[in-house]
Write a sequence for this structure.
């Protein structure tokens, strides 16, 4: 389940511009480098939910 904390972490990565949000490995690396371990695990365990959120903005 996507929590508010995970959404905040996604937005922080997106707003930083360090990774293309469609490149999950790059997003995970950027998240790891920032200590966003919840986001790293979320992407690993919920790829479809992450992808849906990135493409549609819906959970």
């Amino acid at each position: 389940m996507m929590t508010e904390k995970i959404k905040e972490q996604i937005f922080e990565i997106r707003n930083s511009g360090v990774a293309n949000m469609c490149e999950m490995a790059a997003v995970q690396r950027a998240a790891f480098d920032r200590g966003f371990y919840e986001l790293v695990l979320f992407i690993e365990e919920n790829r479809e939910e992450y992808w849906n959120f990135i493409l549609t903005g819906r959970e």
User: Anything to note?
Assistant: The two ends are 9 Å apart (CA to CA).
